[in-house]
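Homework help thread (please don't just give me the answer)

Our assignment gives two proteins as sequence + structure token strings and asks us to describe the second one. The first is just a warm-up. Here they are:
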Amino acid sequence: MPDEGIAIRRMRYSDLQSVMEIERDSFKMPWSEYCFSNVLKDSDSYAVVAESDGTVVGYAVSVICTDRIYIANLAVRNTRRRRGIGSRLLKVLLEHGHKLGKGKVSLTVRVSNRGAISLYERFGFRITGLRKGYYSDGESALIMERPIFLEVTKPTAGKDEKKDHLRVSRSV
């Protein structure tokens, strides 16, 4: 069921307490508040939050690289998952990369994070590599990539597919 009344906007310093709550609740090895503060200062980073009735319910961070954007972090409050918020945050990052003229988007994800892997696959990401023991607890990470200029389709309740509202074409 889609979550109505969600606004996506740039992350602010005043969001960090809520972001940290979500971060600690979502990840085994959470980022520190210092990391998020640096993201907000860094002109090569793009950070957004999903907000509902004045409450931060999710966030996403990307880093701008020479030829691509790298999705560094994306999380949604546990009580608001599986309602399309993660998809909306991901779309905003992809649209931002498209506006910057980047050709590709990449990310790393824990091999055990099936929910995130499924989300990324629905958006056309493909596994392109494995980083063994990538995380400090020894777990490996999948490297996933996709072109920025990829039209995304999503299955609907019927047999037909409808175009996602990302509206990004393959043309360069």
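The one we have to describe:
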Amino acid sequence: MAKSTTSHTEKKAKTRAKKMTQADKKTAAMEAKIKALEDQVAEALKERDAAREKNVRLLAEFDNFKRRTAKDRLQLIKYSCEDIATALLPVLDDLDRTISSTPRAKAGKNPLLEGVVMVRDKFDKLLRENGIRPFTSVGEKFNTDLHEALMSRETEDMEEDRVLEEFEKGYKYHDRVIRHAKVIVSKAKKAVAK
């Protein structure tokens, strides 16, 4: 009977070992599936995070684009008359030359000249109402952002690099220079060698 118990115990052990081997195989297969699913989940999370990051960047770029286009539109509206104003400034200069070429004594008795002065004043008012203004140059320090030097003249009366005379007025449209003033600039008088 000892043999039969042993053999029965061996059979049970073998069956148990077989069942354990099958269970181990199933467990290993399940663990492999779990690992594969965990890897898929981790990859999906990485892709989701990358997509979120991309969306955040795209939203930021779009906001910047909207701000830039809004700013560009405002600038376009603000400076919309620049071309026509620049084209009309020579006409204003011609009116000024007409007025200044007529002697003052005759100016009060000349209805044509009075009409030209009125037109010039209306024209100047219209430009000012639209943000176009002349800027003063005579006596100011020469500035390449505002002035265009046509020549220089030696002088003892004024320090160097000052505007002595203005040939043509400079104009600003809001904060932008639309025409540089054409000027004569002072330079130091050279000492005469004895």
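TA reply:
I won't write it for you, but here's a hint about the kind of observation we're looking for: The chain is about 60% helix and 20% strand.
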